[in-house]
Specification:
Order of helices and strands: HHHHHHHHHHHHHHHHEHHHEHHH
Shape: globular
Distance between the termini: 53 Å
Structural class: mainly alpha
Largest sheet: 2 strands, parallel
Length: 413
Amino acid sequence: MVVWYCQYWNAMVINSLVVSFLPLAILSLLSQKIQEATHSKSLLQNISLLLSRTALVIIASLALNVTIKALTVQGSDNHIYKFVGSWIGLQDETDFDTRLYRCLAVFRPLSWDMFKKMMSDGALIVYAVFMLFHLVRLTLTLLRIWYLKEKSSDQDEIDVKRSGVLVQWLHQCNQNPHATYLLHIDQSLTLTYHVGVSAIFAILGILMARMVVFWSPYIMIMTSVAVCDKDFWYFLVKMLGGAGGTSQNSSSHLTFFLRHLVLAFTLLALYLYHQGLVIGQLEELREFWDPDTVDLMEWINQNTPPSAAFAGTMQLMAGVRLSTLRPITNHPHYEDKHLRERTKELYKMYGQFSAEEVHQALLKFDASFIILEDSQCLSAGRNADRCAMPDTVDLAYGHVSRANAISSFFFFF
């Protein structure tokens, strides 16, 4: 509610899927009686129960979200569902909104070049190992909660001996003071939360390059935790026999020394690796250099009245508004249903429409000037994926060829 208020009562916040999901997920967690319901079930039954509860929460969340949207008559984020649907083949890829997203490189899977850049300083490798280790811990902790009782009795010991290999192995690990760390990630709730969120962002970042903006900070955070976490290092010291037969106090001192030594060497290595690059960037002076755009903005300021409204691509219109303060007919804020519909209609200027049809669309939104970019007009048909703006418009309106396109007429005239 605070976010909704701070964003000027944006209906999309209240009607978002996460708002529908959170209360149902909390209710599902509170309704579970794990200790009573899982000990007598097989591993396959417990996994099926977990997946069933998860699927039920997701379906109920979608139903609740659709109901709320129907009651509030809100569809500002429908384009997101179209985009997701296109990934799994449930949405027509010629849809205008879908193509505007999927034709951008940032909405495609993460490229191998980006992976190599992220691995160049070793952070991604350390992150992957650390995350894999804690995801295994998370799995083992879940199995412990399913099959081991917190307070065991003699009868429980007998039941363990009669049970399967998995339960016996879990019981042995739980009794081993060196291995018990693996089965108790639930004692670090903060770490558990961040491991889960980081795993979700990793999946999204791999599937969609745009999500790297959320994933990359977690790579740095979790890598730092891997280097500095005292519990993690204490476990490594114990498992590798670094403490030998020494006391717990000696093991703690050895852990303290090793993790600070690794931290010091890591900081030194990063400094030596990035020193030249950072100094070079600080010494290099750069400035904005786009004379064509500067000339355009100056021409608008000098030759058009302040009330003149402009139409064009969303990105260029944002610059026009910022540099000239002139009214614009559309802009890159795409989380609004009416703006999406307006953008699609205005983009007829790049498709196969007659001059009269384009003129009527421009008059409908009180446009005084249009700005056509030759980089958009001349890009049609150059790529096999037909991601040029004229191709996107033609596909969205059912036009296949590009003969007599209005953008070509205006440009060459």
